[in-house]
Amino acid sequence: MASAAADGRSEAIEFESVWSDLQGVSFAQGYLDAAGTRTRYLHAGDTDKPVLVFLHGSGGHAEAYVRNLQAHAEHFSVWSIDMLGHGYTDKPGHPLEVGHYVDHLMAFLDAVGTDRAHISGESLGGWVAARFAVDHPDRLDRLVLNTAGGSQADPEVMKRIITLSMAAAENPTWETVQARIKWLMADKTKDYDDIVASRQRVYRQPGFVAAMRDIMALQDPEIRARNLLGPDEYGSITAPTLVVWTSDDPTADVTEGRRIASMIPGARFEVMPGCGHWPQYEDPKTFNRLHLDFLLGRL
Question: What SUPFAM superfamilies does this protein map onto (predicted)?
Fold first, then answer.
């Protein structure tokens, strides 16, 4: 019986819950108007502290950063948002390109009343953050690109993203949504039940199939080509920059992450082992340490 009880405790400890990640965290969930776009956010930290905005990836939502709010709220006014057309934020009803996301981010910063912010983006969020750094250097303090997109067009990866994402949106069963989530992660043995449940609820919203098609616009070769960032764009970034990559990223290997960092003047490059496309979730302790050390100027 003792062994069974021990096993039961072990299983309970290993179960990953969005709510348990937020228990004890003083946070708010809500909506604000960003230039006419109803935008959902998670917020933690005193609003008189420097602003930090977390941006998720394609088809994602604010819960991508549930394991990072508490650590960062000690030092920042932290906002994790549902990006334009994603999650529970308004869906504009047209194909979404990087400029649309950048404009929404600008409107969001205006809505929270800040002239400058630290921006940290994962995947699509990193692509948007980098473009923001190029276009609006006066609004940016420090920049973090976390397994960021936008530097290349790999046909196999683009096809995989479309296939998994549209399957989950068109038929959001547990299996299709879980397949989309597991693709992000290095450890395929876990079920990620709570994140799957959160995303399944998002994908079951009326009209989300059309919204996902709009999100997938950047996987179209022609649209992607005109949004990609190259040496001129990366080379013009003036903000202090951290590029975070992982050992098992499904979108690009470490070489690509290092190449991105090499194009950004003075950028720091870090590799997180044992992680896939969501290092901030898979290994939050390491991510939070690296991230905070950089944002606070300790690196």
Answer: alpha/beta-Hydrolases
Q: Order the strands of the 117-122 sheet from edge to edge.
A: 27-34, 37-44, 77-81, 51-55, 117-122, 140-146, 241-246, 268-272
pLDDT of residue 129: 98
* Tokens 């348990």, located at residue: 20
- In the block, tokens 């013009």 appear at 236
| Cβ atoms of 249 and 149 closer than 8 Å | no
Phi, psi for 59 (deg, rounded to 5): 75, 5
C-alpha to C-alpha distances, 238 to 143, 228, 229, 292, nearest whole angstrom: 10, 19, 15, 20
Torsion sign, CA atoms 83, 227, 195, 147: negative
β pairing state of 51-55 and 77-81: parallel
Cα(246)–Cα(94) distance, rounded to whole angstroms?
33
Domain positions in the chain are: 26-152+227-296
pTM value > 0.85:
yes
Beta strands in the chain (DSSP E): 27-34, 37-44, 51-55, 77-81, 117-122, 140-146, 241-246, 268-272
For the domain spanning 26-152+227-296, the CATH number is: 3.40.50.1820
Residues 6+ apart with CB under 8 A from 186: 246, 247, 248, 274, 275, 276, 282
Q: Using 50, 70 and 90 to split pLDDT, how confident is the model at 14?
A: low
DSSP 41: E
Q: What is the pLDDT of residues 255-269, one digit of tens each?
A: 999 999 999 999 999
Contact call for residues 46 and 21 (beta carbons, < 8 A)? no
- Tens-place pLDDT, residues 83-101: 999 999 999 999 999 999 9
Judge whether 108 and 33 are in contact, CB under 8 Å: no
Q: Are 147 and 245 in contact (CB under 8 A)?
A: yes
- Residue 26's SS3 state is coil
